[in-house]
Amino acid sequence: MNNEQQNGNGQNGGPQILTTRQGHPVTDNQNLRTVGNRGPATLENYQFLEKMSHFDRERVPERVVHARGAGAHGVFEAYGTVGNEPVSKYTRAKLFQEKGKQTPVFVRFSTVGHGGHSPETLRDPRGFATKFYTEDGNWDLVGNNLKIFFIRDALKFPDLIHSQKPDPVTNIQSGERIFDFISNTPEATHMATFLFSPWGIPANYRQMQGSGVNTYKWVNGEGKAVLVKYHWEPLQGIKNLTQEQAAEIQAKNFNHATQDLYEAIERGDYPQWELLVQIMEDHDHPELDFDPLDDTKLWPKDQFPWLPVGKMTLNKNPVNYFAEVELSAFGTGVLVDGLDFSDDKMLQGRTFSYSDTQRYRVGTNYLQLPINAPRCKVATNQRDGQMAYHQDMVEGVNPHINYEPSSLGGLKEAPKAGKDHEPQYNARLVRQKIDRTNDFKQAGETYRNFEDWERDELISNLVNTLANANKVIQDKMIENFTKADADYGRRVAEGLKNKAKNTGEVGAPSGATKTEEGVKQAGEVS
Ligand code: HEM
Q: pTM of this prediction?
């Protein structure tokens, strides 16, 4: 007899009855147990206490960034090749090897800056995180829609995010604070150029690209490595919004991207993305005018072509948003054999941060939750901790032995899958910027590569946001945009001047405080 039969649940085609988490049938879900029908209630109301105290704990802390998101399950199918070559030339990662090989995936899309129910029309990078449940364990590719980032050193991340989150006094996001940080961070000029263009508001999650942004390595059977960057290309095409289009949608629907993804999958219109990689030899490439590990730079497509390696289809919605989407946990350290870290110092910083926050946000045993657990065998000597759900062990292993090495039937080390990749280091331990910062050249190229309407939107969005900033910040931004492209700087400067003429306001005088100036809102920024 199983549990269901014991409490009569669903027996003989009968109704599925409500129980408590202890399995007790609930015979009255409408009335508290009280002394007479007017109360008072009593403290031995176990069913009520359980129901209410679970409810009291229904929220976990939301993600400190990327709190607003939507997710879906699907499958990744490998091509077995990279461009025209067998993929095994570059990586031994099993999921890529055979043509047609399928790996289940879960993807979470997100916006970055605001809370869990903020509008999905905001100007903000979009997260694109993919968990591949491979036979060798999980691989997480934690990317964004944009291909570059604001900063190249992980030490600066909390400051970057503080400047974009709401002001700690007013709890309102402020364009002045955002550009205060960006104007003092010249490497962010390129990302600001993308973010304030229509690329800063993708129309929905299905019609946007994804990119790993940071540089990784692929390692082949001989232990030889190359540098790689990952990109997702939507087979639905790419669509971005003007500020006006976004405002129109937001006035009617602030969940439009979640709704679009959910409804497309429900009607069987499964979104697909091709996965492409760019490959570089594994060294510092002195011939380039940028450092290949600098995540504020694009690797030019004409020199480093995008090579297809597989295709992903999202074909199943979550059954429970909280259990699958909210509790999902992705991290840049989650790699499988054949994939490796590069020396990109942002990547190492990220790799610490993800699992650290997840131990706090979800709990010590977050990897035992079904959405995060690998779908291959897991056998560790880790035990206990809050919400330990089961013991990670395989049958036949001596349950008394939770350490290694042992001669008493404990777990053994795995055989190596290929030669180790063993990069060699000989350098001084320093605190220094990289040499080839080249902060403005690619920002100018990106500006010139935009279509006219994209450039017009960029200028208008920048002017509307910068108009609320202190004059010192405005001037610094104009200087940085001018270094990127003279026309770019000139148009922002002119836009600000015309706006000041129309409104009778110049940028706030240097040193102005919030109380003198009133609260300066982000205006059109996320
Ligand atoms: C989420 C840290 C840079 C993409 C997060 C979270 C943290 C974090 C703490 C919340 C994770 C959670 O609660 O599960 C950092 C740090 C960075 C950095 C310290 C730089 C040093 C980046 C970059 C990208 C990125 C460059 C783009 C490639 C994402 C995405 C998520 C995320 C997509 C959401 C994942 C999900 O859907 O659960 N990041 N991040 N982050 N980050 Fe980063």
A: 0.93
